[in-house]
Structure to design on (305 residues):
C-alpha cells in the first residue's frame, strides 16, 4: 500500500517523475536483470541523471565511474568492499588499531546470540551498503522487525541495482561492531590516481533524512561545489588535530586505483577505518554547479580514453 500511495503522490505532484519511479522499482525487484550491464547503465543513467551516458568518450565524473564499473573489474575489489573480509587487509596495511572492534560475525540472523552482546552495538551486512542497525539499548530491540530486515538484506545482491561488479560475488554475512558514540564525524576522501583531492564531512543519519555534508579541499578550504541530494552543514567543523594522520592513512589506502573513496571516522580524537568505495552513489549523484562534474572527471585518467 505504501508504494501505491507513493506512486499516487508523485503522479499528482510531479508527473514527470513517473518514468523514473517505474524504472527504479523495476530494477529493485529484478525485472531488468536480463539487460546487459552497458544497456542497463545507459537506461538507468538517463532516467536518474536526465542525460545520455557517453561510454565511448566519458568526460564527467559520473560518466567515468560508469566506465570503470564496466571495464575495471579487479578481483581484489570484491574483498575490499566486503566489510568483514577487508578487515585483514586493513590490519596488514595500516594496523589493527584503526579497526572498529569486532563483536561477532554470522551467516544468518538466527545465529546471533543477543544475550552475549553488550547493551549497545552496531549490526551491518558485509555485502551491501546502508544496511546497518544502531542499537543504543538492547532491551528495546524489536527482534521480529530486525529479523525481517536482515533476512531481506541477506537475500539482496547490490550488483543488480547499479551493476557495481565488486558486489556481485560478495558473501552475505552479518557483523557486529562496537558502538562508538552517537555523534561521530564521517570523513570521505575522494582519491584520483593515488592522490586525495578533496573530502566531505558528514553528520546526521541518512536513513532519517538528517544527513548533512560539506566538501573541503585538502587544505580545509570549502569547495565551490556540492551535491543536491544533501543539505550543507550549518557551520564549518574545526580541523581535527589528527588530520595529518588521517591523510597519511588515506595515502596508504588509495594507491593503485583510477578512483577510490576512502572513508574514515574520527571519534574523540581516534581514527577508525570505515570502508573503501569505488562508485559513490553508484555513479548517479552528480555535483553542482554542473561544470564541476567535468572538472572533477578530468582528474580520473582512464586507459585508452
Amino acid at each position: 500500500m505504501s508504494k501505491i500511495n507513493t506512486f499516487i503522490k508523485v503522479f499528482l505532484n510531479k508527473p514527470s517523475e513517473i518514468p523514473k519511479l517505474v524504472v527504479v522499482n523495476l530494477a529493485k525487484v529484478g525485472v531488468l536483470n536480463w539487460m546487459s550491464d552497458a544497456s542497463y547503465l545507459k537506461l538507468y543513467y538517463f532516467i536518474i541523471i536526465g542525460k545520455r551516458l557517453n561510454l565511448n568518450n566519458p568526460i564527467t565524473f559520473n560518466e567515468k565511474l560508469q566506465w570503470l564499473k564496466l571495464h575495471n573489474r579487479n578481483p581484489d575489489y570484491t574483498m575490499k568492499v566486503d566489510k568483514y573480509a577487508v578487515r585483514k587487509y586493513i590490519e596488514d596495511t595500516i594496523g589493527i588499531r584503526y579497526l572498529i572492534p569486532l563483536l561477532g560475525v554470522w551467516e544468518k540472523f538466527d545465529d546471533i546470540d543477543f544475550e552475549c552482546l553488550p547493551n549497545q552495538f552496531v549490526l551491518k551486512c558485509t555485502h551491501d551498503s546502508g544496511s546497518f542497525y544502531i542499537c543504543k539499548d538492547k532491551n528495546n530491540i524489536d527482534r521480529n522487525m530486525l529479523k525481517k530486515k536482515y533476512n531481506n538484506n541477506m537475500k539482496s545482491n547490490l550488483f543488480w541495482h547499479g551493476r557495481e561488479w565488486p558486489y556481485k560475488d560478495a558473501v552475505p554475512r552479518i557483523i557486529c561492531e562496537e558502538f562508538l558514540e552517537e555523534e561521530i564525524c564521517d570523513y570521505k576522501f575522494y582519491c584520483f590516481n593515488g592522490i586525495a583531492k578533496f573530502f566531505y564531512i558528514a553528520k546526521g543519519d541518512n536513513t532519517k533524512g538528517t544527513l548533512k555534508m560539506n566538501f573541503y579541499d585538502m587544505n580545509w578550504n570549502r569547495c565551490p561545489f556540492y551535491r543536491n541530494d544533501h543539505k550543507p552543514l550549518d557551520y564549518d567543523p574545526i580541523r581535527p588535530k589528527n588530520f595529518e594522520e588521517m591523510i597519511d592513512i588515506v595515502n596508504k589506502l588509495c594507491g593503485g586505483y583510477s578512483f577510490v573513496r576512502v572513508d574514515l571516522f574520527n571519534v574523540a580524537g581516534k581514527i577508525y577505518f570505515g570502508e573503501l568505495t569505488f562508485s559513490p552513489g553508484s555513479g548517479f549523484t552528480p555535483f553542482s554547479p554542473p561544470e564541476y562534474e567535468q572538472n572533477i572527471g578530468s582528474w580520473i585518467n582512464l586507459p585508452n580514453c
The chain has ten helices and eleven strands. The longest helix spans residues 37-49. Residues 228 and 288 are 7 Å apart (CA to CA). The chain has a mean pLDDT of 90.
